[in-house]
Every structure is written in structure tokens, then in C-alpha cells.
Amino acid sequence: MSESSAIKPEPVRRKLAAGPLSRGDKWFFRTTSIAANFSFVLVLFILVFLFIQAFPALSSQGLPFVYGSVWDNQADPMVMQIGPMIWGSVLIGAVGVVFATPLAIALAYLIVFLLSNRLGKIATALVDLLAALPSVIIGLWALFVFSPVAAEWASILHTYFGWFPLFQVSTADNGFGGSPFVAGWVVAIMIVPIVTSITREVFSQLDRDLINGALALGGSRFSTFRRVIFPTSAGAVVGAILLGLGRALGETVAIFYVLQLSFDINWGQILEPKGGAVASMILAKFGEADKAEVSGLIAAGLVLFILTLGINFLASVIVNRAQPWRKN
Amino acid sequence: MGFAPRPATQPWASVNKARTAYIVLASIVPIFLTALAVVFTHLNQNVALMGVFLPLQLLAACLVGFTSFGKRGVGDAALIVLVIFFATFVLVLLSSVVVALVTEGAKAMSWTFVSQNNIYVSNTTSLDYGGVGHAIIGTLLIVGITTLVTVPLGIAMAIYLTQSQSKTKGLIRTLTQAISGLPSVVAGLFIMSIALTLGWERSGVLGSMALLPLMLPTVARVAEEALRLVPVDLRYAALALGAPNYRAFFQVILPAAKSGLVTALLLGVARIIGETAPLLLTVPINNGTSWNVFSGNIMTLPAYVYGYLTSAFDSSQSRAWGAALVLMTLVALLFGAARYFSRTKSLKSKTTKQKASK
């Protein structure tokens, strides 16, 4: 080999770029890209403006704002702490998710694997209808129709399983109406549709050959569900449940009427009408709040936003990763 | 195990009549026993449902499963019983909401209630006077403004997500989905913070702004799916013929995806029309009719429901139910229209095919 050919400069790699050529196209893509990046701007704006207005409260209350459990708007330096509310939101969300998950998975299984195409479509439409119910209507129904029933369930649970720490109450005289149990049920009804729709989509996109193969190998419905359907879709289902949890934490009006607000941490006695939820508290206190208290409420909103955005983002990443067919 | 003698005409076993009888029996007996238990021991119905019916039904189904299919029938039977039980449970909850809405709401429903406003109406005024007319107007105005802004924005977002080559698409999609879980009260607080910072008065248009972040993810997601349904070949063909991207979109993709985009609009409106918390925080309520969203008080349907809900008087509660029924009717109309628009596409493609064959 001759030396000269080796020295020959390597040709510059041409980058294949197919950018918009005409002026119209440039504007077209510029506009759409601005619109798409509006998501970032929106999140940023929410954080910035909430922080500006929350700053007076956050700086005067310090860190105890998040974990303390006193809210006194009569004291001279106002004391505003939302520990019980944050914990209450998480507790209600957890209770709601525990109730909603089996319901949603059962519905998705029914729609995809048991019902005929036609009936499945009707069931899907009904689930979508449940999703479309405005939260104020759920709140109305929860207050007048559902909460007496749920309170009865709670009292039954207390009667038969009262020895279990989760179902203990200090006194049964308070009734069970305003408990996280009842609110958890209401929230569960609100999140069943979203968990169902994601789970249903994942179930229906599963490889049919895999399922038929499992059945052909002598698997029953149950063993196919346990060993094929569940393991392959578990990731997306977890994402869907997290997404539901995010919804549950932010649920406002639906549980506003059935929940008893008290600034007293409820560590897990789900039948005790004690505790609260951040969103409900904001709505309850907003009406007669003065400027300083509004700042505290906005700070509570900021905490709620950061909490839910974190959970929702994580959930969306999981769900999107588990649904490769949605990527282009 | 030997082979069963094959029937002469069909390669599969004929329907096992005994098994069918078992299944019918297993579906009837538990309900019957539970009913007996409730009638004779005055057992609480809820206790009977969870403590007697469900275990009995599971047991019966598992027995049938075992006798028909052996050990592997047990798991199947339990799975099917549980799935049907849970699904029925959700169905009962849903129908409970709908039935309560219709029966309670019908008490307030009249032309007066839908058309009049609430001036001179107190908590105890009879239902012959006053109604939700002003709230319907307010809701339509506020939601209309949000729609005007959000739909182009959401569709532009969907275009970006389906047609650009950008690398941040996945992130934007994820973030948009995360925003769809934005607590509605936070959306209200956000706009309120802007108003406090910039010194704006509370008004209807602030409510429209507060609804935007709630509507945007729905519109963007449904529109993205609608655009994705358009065969990519159509777009490539247009581009290959020398059309710039924007023309390819407006003249080829947009007409093809029209019904899907209308669905996106309708579902977006259905998503926000009942939002309450943001409006309570940003829009001052009113008993009279107002067409002015830029200043002054204006009423909305959710705020109307919210306002009358906790009143102890029967007529006020009826007003709340009535307004909720009106709201639900609007949602159902939007929803039905969305279904209609997302369905006509297949019909259309059939008719075009027929035309083409002629």
C-alpha cells in the first residue's frame, strides 16, 4: 500500500439534515414548536407565580410549614402549618388507590378478554362516562347519597375488624362520615376510569400470540393471567396506578363535602373522622382568608403542585415506556 | 386417559348439559341463600353481600369449576366471579350517580329553571322562581374563551408531536401527560397568583385562563391520536409533489383528521365544563345575568351547584341537583357528539371507497 493514499484526508461527514426549506414551513414549524414548548413554560410559570405569592408565608413560617400541625389565623404572627393536610392527602390517595386498583384491573380484564367486541365497546363508553362526570357532581352525590352508605360500611368494618389497628377509632360516637375511608372511596370512584383506560389499552395491545400460546400449552384463564398477562403489563399498570394517585392527591371538590378537616395528624386510623386534604383545605379556608392567609394557602398549593407533578411525571415516564406503540 | 369416542358429525364435544345446569345452579343458589339469610336473620345487607354472598358465590363457582375441569377450573372460576363482581360494583356506583342525578334533578327541572336568572331568589324561594339561565350563559362564555385559545394551541402541539423531527418530543409528551394530572385547585391558585402579582381584578376571563392548563393536555393527546391515524403516506405523497409542510397539513392532513380534531375539541370542553375549584378561586359569583367576562361578577354552573349544595333548605338542594343535571346534560351532549364524530370516519371511508369503485 502506498503511503499517499493513507494520508488522503478523510472526507468530511455530511450531515443529512432535512430542515424546513421555504419560509412558510419555517414559520409553520416555529409556531408549532412554540406551542409544544408551552408545556415547559406553563410548568415554569406555575412554579414562579405560586412561589412569588407564597414567599411571604414560606419565609415567615419556615420549614415547619410542611410538617407542623397548627393553623391559627388569630395568633399575632399567624401560624400556618399543613402537616396533617399533606399526610391526609397521601392517606386518602393511598386508600383510594387500594380500592380502585382491583376494580380497574377487573374492568380492564372484563372488557378486553371476557366481553364480546360490541359489549366491550359499551363498557368502555360507560367507563368514559364515569370519567366525564364533573367532580362537583360526584361531590353532590357523595354528600347526599354515597356517604351514608360508606359510613355504614365503615361502621361494619369497625364492628367486625375493630381489633385491627387500621380500623380502630377513638370513639364510635363521632360517626364515620368524615373519615378518610369515605373520602378514599369517593376518590377511588374518580380514579377508576383513568386506571381502567390505561390498563385496558395495555391489555389490548398485548401480543395475542403470547396469550394464545399460553392457552395452547394448557394454561387456564387464571394461569394465563397470572403468568403471562400480569407480568408483561405490570409496569404500565403500576404507572397507571401512580397516575391515579396523582389525581387522587389533587381531588378537590369531590371530597370537600365528605371530609372532616382537623389539624390533627391521622396516622392511619382510616375510619376516624380526623385529618384532611390539602386541596380541600385550600377551598375551605379561601373564602374568608386575608392577604397573609391567602399567601399561606398559595404556599400549600405550591407544595401540592410539586408533590403531584413529581408523581405524575414519574407515572407518565413509566406509562410511556410501557407503551412503545405510542411512540411514532 | 383414553380418547373419548368421537361423534360422527362434529370433531368437537357436544355441549355438556350437566355442566350448563351446574353453572346455572351455581349462579342462582348463592343469591337465593343470601336473600334467605337477609329475610330470616335480618342481617345487614352490606354484611350479607360481602360476608355471605361473595364467599358463597366463590365457593359455588369453584365447585363447578372443579367438577367440570378439575384443579385448573378452580382458579378460572374464582377469576371470573371476582371480575364480574368488581365490574358490577362499579356499574352500580355509576348508575347510582346517574339515577340520583335524574330523580333529584327532575324535581327542579322546568323551563323557568333553565331560562331565568337568580335575582331576588333566596335559600327558601320556591322553585317556581329563578334558575340557572345566567349560570349557563356564564359557563358557555368562560368555556368558550378557553376553547378558542386552547384548541389551536393543543392542535399545534399535536402537529409538533407527530410531524417534527425534534428530539424533545418524548419529553414534551411526558410533561403534557403529567400536566393532565394538575390539581384543579392549583390551576386556580396559579391564575390567582398572577392576578395578585399584576394587580388584576377577579373576573370571568381569569376563570378562562385557569381552565386552560386543565383542557390543554386532553386536547393535545386526543388531537395527537387523531393526527396519527392519518396514513403517513398521504403526507409523504403531498411532500413529494412539492407541497411545503404547512400546505400538506392544511390541505391533506387536516381534512383527513377533521373529525378526530373535532372529537379533541369536544372532549376537551367536556373535561373542563364541570371544573369547579378554579372558577371558585378566580371568578366572583353573581345572581344576575352578565355577558361581560372581562370585568364584574359572572355566574357559572359549577359555582351554582357549589353554592346551593350545603344549604339546609329543600328548595336550595333541589336547585343544586337541578343545576348538576343541567351540567351533566351538557357533558353528555358533548360526549355523545364526540362519539358521533369519532365514529363517522369509518362510514366516510366506506362511502369514498364505494364512490371510487364506481
Commentary on this structure:
The complex is a heterodimer of chains A (328) and B (358). In chain A, helix 4 packs parallel to helix 7 (180-205), helix 7 (180-205) packs across helix 9 and helix 8 (208-216) runs antiparallel to helix 9 (221-250). The mean pLDDT of chain A is 85. A two-stranded antiparallel sheet of chain A has the order 1-2. Chain A has one domain (84-326): Orthogonal Bundle (MetI-like fold). Chain A is an all-alpha fold. Chain A contains 12 helices and 2 strands. Chain B folds into 2 domains: 17-108, no CATH class; 133-345, Orthogonal Bundle (MetI-like fold). Chain B is flat. Mean pLDDT of chain B is 85; it is low at 346-358. Chains A and B meet through helix 2, helix 4, helix 5, helix 6 and helix 9 of A and helix 2, helix 3, helix 5, helix 6 and helix 7 of B.
Task: Please name the defining characteristics of this protein.
heterodimer, A: mainly alpha, MetI-like fold, B: 358 residues, 2 domains, disordered C terminus
